[in-house]
Each structure stands twice: as structure tokens, then as C-alpha cells.
Description:
single chain; Tetrahydropterin Synthase, Chain A
Amino acid sequence: MQMTPKIFAFLVASLIVLLTLFSGCYVVQPGMRGVKVTLGNLDENFIPPGPGLKLPFVTHVEKVSVKQETRELNAECYSQDMQQVSIKLKIIYAVPEQSVVQVYRDYQGDPFDSLVAPRVQEALKEQTALLSAEQIVKQREAVKQKTRESADKKIGAVVQITDVILENIDLSKQLEEAIESKMVQEQNANKAKFEQEKRKIDADTKVIEAKAEAEAIKLRGEALKATPDLIQLMIVEKWDGHSPMVVGNAKDATSVILPLPERK
């Protein structure tokens, strides 16, 4: 079939209509938000996920992620005692919905390199400058927490910092060995102190037990002296019915003659 001018014109018109229809539609995927740009002008309201219509060939929709992102960062810091400390960290962050238009306008849709990373590095360096290299290693959880809080204040509401993770802290080999040696010495000192305190407690316990035993013996002696009949009662309670037949000393009036068992 030979294509006539009318058929060709119809096909061209149909193609233009299809392109217009496609150009007038958009879809924002889950985890993303859209920003309408019409002839260079931004719509101040973000577009939620889902399909929608726009002006063909005039308006385009830019996508900005609001999903939680994790990025790595290396920071070179100096401690209070002027030791160089290399820290590898991970930053977990997200762009809130209300910041989508601002993030696209000011940071081309990705605020990490120009906003998040510099502010986190600045906050981290401020915290490490307040501590010695040894303290940075020992107090890494506190350094992490204070860095995140400081970065939050510096960044503001534009980006939400969920967490800052200090993955690795590198010191010079000599400094690491010095810190390790000091920690071992502290552990040994603490162990020796614990053992010394334990020995003192054990000795004090024995003295207390000895005093208690002596006091108990003294009280028993006084009780027996005050009540001689108590001795006879104790003997009768413990007697098994067999010899000896005479227990005690006649001189102190505590002798007891026990009856012999009857023979059958």
C-alpha cells in the first residue's frame, strides 16, 4: 500500500498527539518526591508519590529522594595534645518532605557533598580538639553523640541526621603502642588494688568471726556458771544410754550418776 500525503499527515499528527500525551504525564516513585519546574520557576509545593499531569513540553518534574541514605566519610582531625587522628565514619541521614524543594533549589537534589559532609566534619573536628588522642579512643561513644548533636544544629531542619557512626580511629603506631601500654598498666593496677582490697576484707572478716566466736564462748561460759543445772540437762539430752556411768567431777558438784540399762 502506497503512503499518500493524507496518511503521512495522519501518522505525523498521531505521533505528535502521543508525544504530547506522554509529555503531559509523570510518575513519582515511592521513596521519592517531585518538584515541578515550569520555564525555570519552581513550584513551592512538593509532589507526593504517584502519577500526575503537567503542562507538556513546558513543565518537567525533578525527583528528590526522601529515603534514608548512608554515606561514608573520612576526616583528618587533631586532638588537644596535637596528635593527628584519622577517623572513618558513616553518616545516616534523610531529606524531610518539607525540605524537598529547598534541597533541589539549593543543592541540586543531593545535599551530602555541599551540606552534610562539611558540617559533620566541622562538628567532629570541634569535638576531637577538646580531647587528647587517648580520650578520643576511650570516649568514642561520647564523641559520636556530641558530633551528631552539633552537626544537627549546624545543618538545621534541611536534612535530618539519624546517626553518625565512628567506624575506625587511626593513630600513629607509636601513639597506639603508648596508649595500649598505659591501658595495660592501668588494668594491672586496678587488678592489684582489687586483690589488696579483697585480702583486707577477708582479714577483717576473720577478725570479726574470731571476735564473735570469742564472745559466744564467753557468753556460754557465763551461762553455765550462772546455771549449773544446765550442764546436767545438756548431758542427759546427748547421752546415748551407754557408759560412762559417771560424768563430771564430784568436787564441782556437777557429777551425774546414770542408771545402768536393765538386762533381760
